[in-house]
Design goal:
Structural class: alpha+beta
Strand content: 25-35%
Largest sheet: 6 strands, antiparallel
Oligomer: single chain
Number of strands: 6
Shape: globular
Length: 118
């Protein structure tokens, strides 16, 4: 498959690590560097009986290695998206969401780096 056609702008993709899934919207594929520019939507933590859904629509965009993403299935995302409230104008960033997002990315990057070294 041609790398440029793996994902399309507007498509929902997932970064999976441990018991968490980061769902994000593809903004652009940077073919020359094999990176994917995404806009995070939500982080789902599935360690509990009912998954914890965190709204990430106000965190920073992410430029991440393309090969770590997978396409998200409509059936897995639709229920989570339905739990988000309409986006409201916020003057203060949600610090809890930002911290969880940063922690997830940090842990995923460390695991990716360790996998690259072996």
């Amino acid at each position: 498959m041609d790398i440029s056609s793996k994902f399309q702008p507007g498509q929902i993709v997932s970064l999976d690590y441990s018991h968490q899934n980061l769902y994000a919207e593809v903004i652009e594929i940077v073919v020359s560097r094999q990176l994917c520019w995404v806009r995070p939507l939500l982080l789902v933590n599935s360690t509990q009986e009912l998954p914890l859904v965190m709204d990430l629509r106000n965190v920073s965009d992410l430029l991440w290695p393309l090969d770590l993403f997978r396409p998200a299935l409509d059936t897995e995302v639709i229920a989570f998206l339905g739990q988000l409230f309409p986006k409201e104008l916020k003057f203060e960033p949600d610090l809890g969401a930002k911290q969880q997002f940063n922690l997830f990315i940090h842990q995923l990057w460390q695991a990716y780096q360790q996998g690259q070294e072996t």
